[in-house]
Amino acid sequence: MKRLSLNLALAALVAILFLASLMAGKAWVPFSAWFTHDPRWWIVAELRLPRAILGAGIGAALGLTGAVLQGFLRNPLADPSVVGVSSCAALGAVASIVLLSASAPLIIFGSAMLAAAGGMALLAGLAWRSQSAVAFILVGTVLASLAGALTAFLISIAPNPYATAEIIDWIMGSLTDRSFSEVQFAMPFIALGCAALLFTGRALDALTLGEDAARSLGLSLRRTQMLIVLGAGLAVGASVAVTGVVGFVGLIVPHLLRPLTGARPSALLLPSALGGAVLVLAADSLVRLGPGATEIRLGVAMALIGTPFFFALLLRMRRSAWI
Q: How many other β-carbons are positioned within 10 Å of the β-carbon of residue 77?
């Protein structure tokens, strides 16, 4: 009952913040202007509605992926960047801008998803022989480092300052000026990825007993790895492909909700998806209300929130170790 109440409360919060996201911005659009001939209604229908849909979907994908990875790796500092899919998707998008001079959303999205798929295949291939979570995290870390280095190389050889500015703007992560085209590109992949990740709940519960005990219960670590690679690749790859890099959601949300859900990793999955949607919708509404003519980038805002949280988490873990 407690779990149901938590999920219902988070779902209600998502709905409230979704509506607030449609109203908030440099131009405030009250509910009385909706579905009327008021010109501000078109701001809601054409600009803010696709942005809110993407914010909810991307937040859910990142929050859920973070909860799954922390459960699978049994590492409280794990988040979607650990498996390298975010970095690979970013590399694909940057390569399309630098090497193909691409500006069309479809080309950038396609390039990012191809790179995410390539990274996913490489991760699956390298981690296939080992069923250990340690090998999985090591391969993902190497992949993320390589993709980050290649992205920096492409930025350094960008042909003109306009391309460099476009890349940096994209890497900072933002939902500004996203349309229903991006919604159509990303949401099917995000939905499929989240569905795959939700199937890992039973395996994550078994892994709390240790890998050997989980195997004795009939769990296939290889199958679980493949589900996580597939789910994270689709959900996180599609998210990065339309918004750029938005970090810390997958790290923060599971930590905030774990005290409310108990020790079972499977109980944390749905609340983390809803909590991720809450966090991204709230942050995206707030960045629009900041001072100045332009918006603060969503990725920058999440880094400002996430970095102190990360340090606080490290200090708490360090104190626990000393005790």
A: 14
Give 290's DSSP letter. Answer: S
The pTM (predicted TM-score) of the whole model is 0.89
Residues comprising the chain, all counted:
323
Q: How far apart are CA 267 and CA 259, in angstroms?
A: 11
Residues 131 and 222: beta-carbon distance below 8 Å: yes
Distance CA 83, CA 120 (A): 9
| Residue 153 burial (CB count, 10 A) | 12
- How many angstroms separate the Cα of 321 from the Cα of each of 38, 75, 262, 309, 312? 60, 15, 21, 18, 14
Give the whole-angstrom CA distance, residue 305 versus residue 55.
17
Q: Identify the burial level of 215 via C-beta atoms within 10 angstroms of its C-beta, where 0-12 means exposed, 13-18 middle and 19 or more buried.
A: middle
- Distance (Å) of CA 151 to CA 8, 87, 91, 115, 158: 41, 8, 5, 12, 11
* CA atoms of 71 and 204, how far apart (whole Å): 6
Block residue for tokens 């750029």: 244
**DSSP 8-state code for residue 297:** P
Helix (H, G, I), strand (E, B) or coil at 37: coil
The answer to whether the CB of 197 falls within 8 A of the CB of 269 is: yes
Cβ-contact 128, 71 below 8 angstroms: no
Highest mean pLDDT, choosing among 35-44, 72-81, 275-284: 275-284
Q: 116 near 186, Cβ under 8 Å?
A: no
CB atoms under 10 Å from CB of 251, counted, come to: 25
What does the pLDDT look like over 92-111, one tens digit per residue? 888 888 887 777 778 888 88
State both tokens at 52: 């809110």
> Which residue's entry shows tokens 């069923």?
131
CA 113 and chain centroid, separation:
14
Collapsing DSSP states into helix, strand and coil, what is residue 315?
helix
